[in-house]
Design goal:
mainly alpha, Znf_CCHC, elongated, metal-binding, about 375 residues, 15 helices, Znf_CCHC_sf
C-alpha cells in the first residue's frame, strides 16, 4: 500500500519540478497539502488525525522604536538650575555638574543638550550667549557638541587668574581644628576647578591626607587608603572619635570645678588639719575663718565670719545702760564721750580716794594683842 501511494505521487512531483510556478499562481485545489501527502503515503489509513491544523509560519519580530529623547517640558520637569554667570568659577562648575545630572535623568539626546541648557541662562550669562548667537549664528551655535559648549563656558566664566587663585587655595588648604567635613567640602570644590592638580587619584589622596591635622593625618597615612573615599571615611571616623573624647573630658572638668566651688568656695583645700583634727568646713584665706560658699568678710563686733558688723544680730541685741539705745555698751556710748580705750572719769564734786594697804611684820604683830598670829586650815 505504501509503495502504491509513492508511485501515485511521483508523476505529480516530476510535473512540479519541470514546470515551476509562482506561489501566488498555484490554485489552492491543486496544492499538495501535508495531510494529502500523508494520506497518499499511508494509503489513506483511517488512524491518521485529519483534524490536525496546519503549521503556521512564525511572525516577524517587531523592531523597537528609536528613543526620541525628551521634550523641553520633560527637561524642565527635572528642575534644572538657572545660571546667572556672576558668581565666580565655583558657581559655573557647579552649574555644569547639576545640568549634566539633569541631562542624564531626562535622557536628553545630543542634538538638544545645548539648546535646552542655554535656555537656563539669565542676566550676565544670557547677554553673553546672545552675543555668541550673533557671532556664530543660531544654527551653528545650537549644533555644537556638549563638550565644546562646556569649554566655551569655562573660558568665559572660569578665567585663568581665578583658576590660579583656586590652585593656590587648593595647595595650601588645611583642616581647622576638628571641622573635617568642612575641610573635605572645600577640598573637592577646589579640586573640581583645578583638575590637573587633583589627578590621578593617588595624587588626590596624598594631597587630602596632607591637609589633615597632625593626630589624624598620621593615622590615615599609616592606613594607606587605596581610594579617596576610603581616606575621607577614615578621617571622618577619627574626627568624630576625637570630638567625643574632648567632650567627655570637658564634662569631667566642668563637674569637678562645680564640685570644688560648691564644697570649698574660694579655698583650694577641702579639709584642713587644725589642733590634730580634720575639719570638713573649709578655711577661708580672706577672713581667716571657716565657712562654706563665698566669703562675706568678718564681723568687727562679734568677730564671727559670714556677715558684716551692721548685720550682726548680737550687736542689735545689746542695749546701753547709760543712754538706753541698742547697739553699743556704756563704755562706748557716744553721749558720754567715752571710748573703749579711755578710762571712766569720776563725777564732778568728788575726790578720788586711794586704797590703803596695811602691812605688819611678825615682830609688830606680836606686840599688838588684837592680832592673832597662827596658821589656820580651811
Amino acid at each position: 500500500m505504501i509503495a502504491q501511494g509513492i508511485a501515485n505521487a511521483i508523476p505529480a512531483i516530476f510535473t512540479a519540478v519541470k514546470n515551476p510556478v509562482e506561489p501566488q499562481q498555484i490554485i489552492p485545489s491543486k496544492r499538495i497539502s501535508e495531510d494529502n501527502f500523508s494520506n497518499s503515503v499511508n494509503g489513506g489509513n483511517d488512524h491518521v488525525n485529519h483534524d490536525k491544523e496546519p503549521r503556521q509560519a512564525p511572525l516577524p519580530k517587531k523592531r523597537k522604536a528609536a528613543t526620541p529623547g525628551c521634550t523641553y517640558k520633560e527637561f524642565l520637569a527635572c528642575k534644572p538650575v538657572e545660571f546667572a554667570g556672576n558668581e565666580g568659577a565655583t558657581a559655573a562648575v557647579r552649574w555644569l555638574e547639576k545640568t549634566e545630572a539633569v541631562i542624564r535623568i531626562s535622557k536628553c539626546v545630543e542634538e538638544d543638550k545645548v539648546m535646552y541648557a542655554s535656555h537656563l541662562f539669565k542676566e550676565e550669562a544670557l547677554e553673553w550667549w546672545n552675543t555668541v548667537l550673533q557671532a556664530k549664528g543660531s544654527d551653528v551655535a545650537y549644533a555644537m557638541g556638549w563638550e565644546e559648549f562646556k569649554r566655551l563656558i569655562e573660558r568665559k566664566f572660569c578665567p585663568e587668574y581665578e583658576k590660579e587663585q583656586m590652585a593656590n587655595k587648593f595647595l595650601s588648604h588645611r583642616m581647622v581644628d576638628v571641622d573635617c567635613r568642612g575641610y573635605t567640602s572645600k577640598f573637592f570644590e577646589y579640586a573640581r576647578i583645578v583638575p590637573t592638580l587633583a589627578s590621578p587619584e593617588p595624587v588626590l589622596i596624598s594631597r587630602y591626607i596632607w591637609g589633615l591635622i597632625s593626630g589624624i593625618r598620621d593615622i590615615v597615612k599609616a592606613a594607606r587608603p587605596r581610594t579617596i573615599d576610603d581616606a575621607v571615611e577614615l578621617a571622618n571616623t577619627l574626627t568624630d572619635g576625637l570630638v567625643r573624647t574632648r567632650e567627655e573630658n570637658r564634662r569631667k572638668d566642668l563637674a569637678q570645678k562645680i564640685s570644688q566651688e560648691f564644697h570649698i568656695g574660694n579655698s583650694n583645700n577641702f579639709k584642713k588639719r587644725e589642733n590634730g583634727r580634720f575639719s570638713t568646713i573649709p578655711f577661708c584665706d580672706i577672713c581667716k575663718g571657716k565657712h562654706f560658699g563665698k566669703c562675706k568678710g568678718c564681723c568687727n563686733f562679734c568677730k564671727i565670719p559670714g556677715h558684716r558688723e551692721e548685720d550682726c544680730r548680737k550687736k542689735k541685741a545689746i542695749t546701753c545702760y547709760s543712754c538706753g539705745e541698742p547697739g553699743h555698751f556704756r563704755t562706748s556710748c557716744p553721749k558720754l564721750g567715752n571710748s573703749a580705750n579711755e578710762k571712766t572719769k569720776p563725777a564732778e564734786g568728788t575726790t578720788k580716794k586711794n586704797a590703803r594697804a596695811f602691812q605688819l611684820t611678825t615682830q609688830e604683830a606680836e606686840l599688838i594683842p588684837d592680832i592673832i598670829v597662827g596658821t589656820s586650815i580651811i
